[in-house]
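Chapter review: from sequence to fold.
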Amino acid sequence: MAIYPLLRPMIFTLDAERAHGLTIAALKMAPIGSPPASPPALTQTITGLTFPNPVGLAAGFDKNAEVPRQMLGLGFGFAEVGTLTPLPQPGNPKPRMFRLTADQGVINRLGFNNDGQTSAAERLSRRDRSRGIVGINIGANKDSEDRVADYEIGVRAMAPLADYLTINISSPNTPGLRALQDEGALDDLLARCMAARGDHSVPIFLKVAPDLEPADIDAITRIAMARQINALIIGNTTISRPELRSVHAQETGGLSGKPLATLARERLADFRSATGGVLPLIAVGGIDSAEEAWSRIRAGASLIQIYTALAYHGPGLARRIVHGLEQLRQRDGFDTLTAAVGTAA
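The token string follows.
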């Protein structure tokens, strides 16, 4: 872990997507250890699931569900795999992933590239579910004639294998996908996804974009609560462009990492206000330290997720954030992390 700052310059000489592929390959060959123990006071229980700590791996890192156990072994309290679509698809043309090193961000326009749900299901069916919480993020194929049907297929296929499912309608890299966040389309989508669970009581989370207007936030909240969605993930990458220094700043696609932090904080506050603290929220976007994670928890997030920050801070980041959260909890006088959720909202 401590050697990562020395390795990073060499890793950054590689194309970002190639470096990521090599990382997954290395993790697949790494010995799988038991997840490290987390401080008991950081345990979070939401939607019937008990998370040993609130630090999760965001979707997009392990697109094909190849290394969830390895990531849990790095100290994550849960790992979300995917996005998985019903059929395999190559995604958008390369190059499609760009490091914004000067800004500690990434722009990607990958386009749900993955090997499909059948391939991932075979791997996921073999996992020991007692070894940690794994969520499955599902999406629609780019050329699908009925994208809502794709989500129904995903729910039916993945529900038996998931500790929770995430409905991802917020990627900016599949044309027209974000239109499913519109009020009428969203209500139909969620109704059909909830019905598609059948006898499985797996929790369903909804992942929304950060690029939303106040009326959108109110409508999404109202529909999500009416359809009994279990949690909201706030949010995804942004198509907006704050002031950036990198030469890749004008590449098209979704922006993630440190430049997203301000927008992600604002959107979390908006959804906390809209939900009144009734619906659990999971914060994503620009979280790269225990202090930032703690601020999101105090602002109303029950859990947080990271991805882009791993490229800049290394594989030990999850453990460092967990350790720092325990120190911050003690400093601020909360008996448990749960007691701190929303106290600065």
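Two observations follow directly from the output. The CA atoms of residues 58 and 305 lie 5 Å apart. The chain has a mean pLDDT of 95.
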